[in-house]
Amino acid sequence: MKNLYTPLSTGEGPGVRSEQLKQIIKEKYGQIAEQSKELNEASCCGSGCGCGVADTTVMSEDYSKLQGYVADADLGLGCGLPTEFALIKEGNTVIDLGSGAGNDAFVARSIIGETGRVIGIDFTEKMIEKARNNAEKLGFNNVEFRQGDIEKLPVSANVADVVVSNCVLNLVPDKQKAFSETFRVLKPGGHFSVSDIVLQGNLPESLRQSAEMYTGCVSGAIQKETYLGIIKDNGFVNVQVQKDRRITLPNEIVMQYLSKEEFEIYKSGQSGIFSITVFAEKPGNKVADAIT
Question: Are 289 and 142 in contact (CB under 8 A)?
Answer without folding.
Answer: no
